[in-house]
Amino acid sequence: MYQYKNQLKTELFLINKNSVVYRTKLDKEIEKQLQPLFIDEILNYILTGIDTGLTVRAFEDGDAQENVLQRTRWENVERLAEVMHWVNTQESEMEVFVEEEHDLKRIKGALLRCTHPAFKQPFYVIKALPAAQMLKGDGVWMVKASNFGPCADAAALRIPADNQMLLIDEDLFVFNQAKLDRLFGYNAKKNSVAAKKVAEIEEHFKLSFADGMDMQSLIKGNKTAINKLQKVQIGDLTQDAIVDHADELGVGLMQDEAGAIIIENTKDLNQFVNLLNDDYMKSQLTGIRYEIRGKKPLPPPKDDAAAEIAL
Questions:
Q1: Whether 23 and 155 share a structural domain
Q2: Is CB count within 10 Å lower at the N or C end of the chain?
Q3: Rounded to two decimals, what is the model's pTM?
Q4: Exposure letters 188-209 (e unless 16+ CB within 10 A, then b)
């Protein structure tokens, strides 16, 4: 990449909060800033890292560490996959960003496409854009020399200079996990834990899904299930125990003729995960059923605690 740096063709796209992508028209002076803002620091990080033993590791292989660059398949990130679908197949349908029509405050990210004849595919640099660095409306002033004036008929945007995400071929290299989560709602660590829990669940329980679906595909982008799966402990839980508990609560899991638990959609999945995580209870006082959002085990009564100490 380094040897072609000065011959790269760069194109900037903007991403809104619904993962809609816009083309941009850039002033020549702004075009000169693209490489310093998007590319130079990434190259510096990688070249410096080569000399200091920088390693690349999948998120599934451990937590972030110094001198370790983490990566995942970009197709794992559902909202990024939507963005890449726009870029790869719908570019002709993209609108040019116009502030009066599209509203800068709705823009959440920027994507720089970098191409060169020597590359089989483009590579992309992606950044989340904080709303606090977008300025428009009353109270936004411009200053030139000693003169202050209103920022009339314009909006201001500041591009952060930090390294965030780099997409090459099928891999997304993540320099800043928090920015990945902010822009695309994807917590790689949680998704990695959830994927391992799903593999354990599928091995332990008999489940039945609609054609073309499985538990991994149903948790993709399902934050509720992903967060719950962080805490699930299978232990000695059995299929019969889960089904019986669901019947007692009136939740009612469906089963097929072979006794497999039927999961047709995300609602069924969330219900099943709630049961695994013991997130339902029925009040003995009122008979009302609840889904518990948070659980804090009660300490034993003082008399019981004292008896335990005495023993």
A1: yes
A2: C
A3: 0.79
A4: bbbbbbbbebbeebeeebebeb
